[in-house]
Amino acid sequence: MPRDNRLSRSLHALIHLDRHVKRATSETMAKMLGTNAVVVRRMMSGLRDKGYVVSEKGHGGGWELRVALTEISLLDVYQAIGAPALFSIGPAAEPSPCLVEHAVDAQLDQTLSEAEALLLKRFSQITVADISDDYLSKMAKLGLPSNTFPKCSE
């Protein structure tokens, strides 16, 4: 099962919009993220609907950050992209008459629900600015100026 990378791509795009470009087209962001512009527009539309970014069509248009990264949590971005499933494991999809499977499914449901609650709580405590600060720290350790545009794709 392929991983859902919309959360990491969205965070990546938000940090670039904050640190490197005031406005970026879907095509520019698609090259940076190694995907296509349609995927970017779909991904960014949820962020736009929540008011974190705005978009303008036409010449000189593109996506622009509307809210400071300190005001956006990982939970906010996760919810903006549609709150995809966090785990690819879980109980059987089809109901079964087997009581062993009922016991297994009940325990898995409970455990995964508890894990999801902890993860979402942690998401709410981390801002996109925290991630951006970590990126800037990595740049400083490499001796690179913070305004350097990192090479993210070929």
The gross shape turns out to be: elongated
Order of helices and strands: HEHHEEHHH
CATH topology: Arc Repressor Mutant, subunit A
Poorly predicted segments: none
Please state the CA-atom Rg, rounded to the nearest Å: 19 Å
Pfam family, one: Rrf2
Keywords: 2Fe-2S, Iron, Iron-sulfur, Metal-binding, Repressor, Transcription, Transcription regulation
Protein name: Rrf2 family transcriptional regulator
Organism: Pantoea leporis
Walk me through what this model shows.
The chain is mainly alpha-helical and 154 residues long. The chain has one domain (6-141): Orthogonal Bundle (Arc Repressor Mutant, subunit A). Helices cover 54% and strands 6% of the residues. It has six helices and three strands, in the order H-E-H-H-E-E-H-H-H. It has a three-stranded antiparallel sheet. A hairpin with a 5-residue loop joins strand 2 (53-56) and strand 3 (62-65). Helix 4 crosses helix 5. The radius of gyration is 19 Å and the shape is elongated. The two termini are 26 Å apart. The model has no long low-confidence stretch (mean pLDDT 90).
What are the SSEs and their pairings?
Layout: H1 6-19, E1 23-24, H2 26-33, H3 37-49, E2 53-56, E3 62-65, H4 74-80, H5 99-125, H6 128-141
Pfam family, one: Rrf2
Keywords: 2Fe-2S, Iron, Iron-sulfur, Metal-binding, Repressor, Transcription, Transcription regulation
Protein name: Rrf2 family transcriptional regulator
